[in-house]
From TrEMBL:
InterPro entries, per the entry: Flavoprotein-like_sf, FMN_Rdtase-like_dom
Taxonomic lineage: Bacteria, Bacillati, Actinomycetota, Actinomycetes, Micrococcales
Residue ranges of domain NADPH-dependent FMN reductase-like in the record: 21-165
Protein name: NAD(P)H-dependent oxidoreductase
Classification via Pfam families: FMN_red
Length: 216
C-alpha cells in the first residue's frame, strides 16, 4: 500500500518531541496481518513527522483481564500497558468493525481505563488530564462514526482530550470482502484524514504539556 506523503514535516527539536502509544484491538494475534494495525501505523508515521515518537501494541497479544481495576491480579497484562499509556503524551485506540461495533478487545481496553478516575494528581485530577487521545477504525461496513463516538466519550470521561478531527477511518463497501490492507494504494480521503489527525493531536498535546488544565 502506498503511504501518504501529504503531511508537511515540522522542525521539532529533541527537547520538543512527544510520545504516542497506539493500542490496536484486532481480534487476530500477531503476527497475523491486520488492517487496523496498518492504518494505525500510518497514523504513527504521520505523527512522527510532527515530532512524535510512537509505539504500537496489539492488545490481544497481552493477557488483559476483564475488570475495571488498574491491576486485576497475578498475570494481568494491563498494568504494564497502563504504565506505557501514562508515560505517553498521546493515546490512540485502533479497532476493527464487527457487526457495526468496535471489537470486544477494544471494549475490554475501554473498561480497564475506568480505573483512571480514581488515580489522581495533586490537583485532584486524573493522571490522564493533559493527555490527548484519538481513534482509528477500519471495517467492511458502516459504523465508523458510531464507533468513534463511543471511543471519544469513554476516553473523555476518564480525562483524555480529543483533538479536532480526532479519528481516521476507512470503510469498505458493505457485504464485500476487501480489507484495507488489500488496497493497492491509500485512498486520498483516508490519507488526508490521517494527516489531519496527526497534525492536530501533536499540536494539542504540546499545548497541554506546556499549559496544564487548572485545578477546579
Amino acid at each position: 500500500m502506498t503511504e501518504s506523503t501529504s503531511t508537511t514535516p515540522t522542525t521539532a527539536g529533541n527537547g520538543d518531541r512527544l510520545t504516542a502509544l497506539a493500542i490496536t484491538c484486532s481480534l487476530k494475534p500477531s503476527p497475523a496481518d491486520s488492517s487496523t494495525d496498518l492504518l494505525t501505523r500510518q497514523l504513527l508515521d504521520a505523527l512522527e513527522r510532527h515530532g512524535v515518537d510512537g509505539e504500537l501494541v496489539r492488545a490481544v497479544d497481552h493477557d488483559i483481564r476483564p475488570g475495571v481495576e488498574a491491576d486485576m491480579g497475578d498475570g494481568d497484562g494491563w498494568p504494564a500497558l497502563r504504565e506505557k499509556m501514562l508515560a505517553a503524551d498521546i493515546l490512540v485506540i485502533g479497532t476493527p468493525t464487527w457487526m457495526g461495533q468496535h471489537s470486544s478487545i477494544a471494549q475490554r481496553v475501554l473498561e480497564r481505563l475506568d480505573a483512571e478516575l480514581s488515580d489522581t494528581n495533586e490537583a485532584g485530577q486524573p493522571r490522564t488530564y493533559g493527555k490527548v487521545a484519538g481513534a482509528v477504525v477500519v471495517g467492511n461496513e458502516d459504523g465508523a462514526h458510531h464507533i468513534s463516538a463511543v471511543i471519544f466519550q469513554c476516553l473523555n470521561d476518564v480525562g483524555f482530550t480529543i483533538p479536532a478531527g480526532g479519528v481516521t477511518y476507512w470503510n469498505g463497501e458493505a457485504m464485500h470482502a476487501t480489507d484495507y490492507q488489500d488496497l493497492d494504494e491509500t485512498p486520498e480521503k483516508t490519507a488526508s484524514t490521517t494527516a489531519t489527525l496527526a497534525a492536530n493531536a501533536a499540536h494539542l498535546a504540546r499545548r497541554l504539556r506546556d499549559a496544564a488544565y487548572p485545578a477546579a
